[in-house]
Amino acid sequence: PSRDPERLRQIQERLLMEDSDEEEGDLCRICQMSAVAPGNLLVVPCSCTGSLQYVHQDCMRRWLEAKIKSGAELSAVLHCELCKQLLRFEVEGFDIHQLYQEHSANQAQSDFVHSGLYLVLLLHLCEQRFNDIL
């Protein structure tokens, strides 16, 4: 099939016009979706402006949980990575401080178990080495 450059240009222009006519409205900076569910409102958790201003409550909750599980310090979890302001984020049944403390306690317990296993392995290797010498 032959390609008509003028026809392609017209199609491109029409597509660009359609895109510019559509009003996207406010979008979540994490999932890039608009406010689709009544129970998952777009909130403004910090001083960011423009397209970074809004975030869904659920997206923000999951983002904060991921930051905590990644081992981030509490101050990094409580502040916006972009504008550095303290996050204003209150959702019923979600307590950042409690979640952070629970994760820290679980991490400490896990570290303790790993240290114990390491010591048992080290003792076993020392015992083998000692038996080889004798």
UniProtKB/TrEMBL annotation:
Q: Pathway listed for it?
A: Protein modification; protein ubiquitination
The reactions it catalyses are: S-ubiquitinyl-[E2 ubiquitin-conjugating enzyme]-L-cysteine + [acceptor protein]-L-lysine = [E2 ubiquitin-conjugating enzyme]-L-cysteine + N(6)-ubiquitinyl-[acceptor protein]-L-lysine
Gene3D superfamilies under this entry? Zinc/RING finger domain, C3HC4 (zinc finger)
- One short Pfam name that applies is RINGv
What SUPFAM superfamilies does the database record attribute to this sequence? RING/U-box (SSF57850)
- Any idea where the RING-CH-type domain is? 20-90
List the InterPro entries hit by this protein, alphabetically: RING-CH-type_E3_ubiq-ligase, Znf_RING-CH, Znf_RING/FYVE/PHD
Q: What is its EC number?
A: 2.3.2.27
Per UniProt, the enzyme's principal EC class comes to transferase
Which keywords does the record carry?
A: Metal-binding, Transferase, Ubl conjugation pathway, Zinc, Zinc-finger
Q: Which SMART domains match?
A: RINGv
Please list the GO terms describing molecular function: ubiquitin protein ligase activity; zinc ion binding
Know the name of this protein? Answer: RING-type E3 ubiquitin transferase
Source species: Petromyzon marinus
